[in-house]
Amino acid sequence: MDSDLGPASEEALLRLYANGDDQAARELARRFLPRVLAYGRRMLGDGDEAQDVAQEAMVRLWRIAPEWRSGEAQVSTWLWRVTANLCTDRLRRRRGGVALEDAPEPEDDAPSALQQMVEANRAAALEAALQKLPERQRQAVVLRHLEGLSNPEIAEVMAIGVEAVESLTARGKRALSALLSGQKQELGYEDDR
Hints:
Elements lengths: L9 H9 L3 H23 L2 H18 L10 H19 L19 H20 L2 H12 L4 H8 L3 H19 L13
Helix pairs in contact: 1-2, 2-3, 2-4, 3-4, 4-7, 6-8, 7-8
């Protein structure tokens, strides 16, 4: 059952939801839930915890809807900030160790079994390397390079300046490169330079 809400802005959808429009709630969830879930998975390294975080972030969005003040922030930026804070809280609670997912989700465009294995190994290596980064570097790298947020958006989510985002991202990328450099051949990059 399609609706005409597809092109509606995030803020318009949130207002519609606050006024009781369930279709607007579904459209907001369709737009945000997969990305929030993926972000949580990358930050926490645990699919179940990521689902809990994504669900809590969306519940908080539903709760704030009636009090949303137009023009103060973008809905997506607000949601990223809430999700980042929820992930940070969970990471602080379990400082002793971080569980890693054993296998990433396969790509939807149905590559060959060999390509799926190569991609799975690469994704697992990236996930493992991401978990070794300091929390703030991991957060900046994931938001910038895996979620596609701009530096100003990341600065707002992380409550830091754009220069700090650039620094965290650069240091995170260098650290990832160093962590993964000894695995090039194993990950199928022997011909890449």
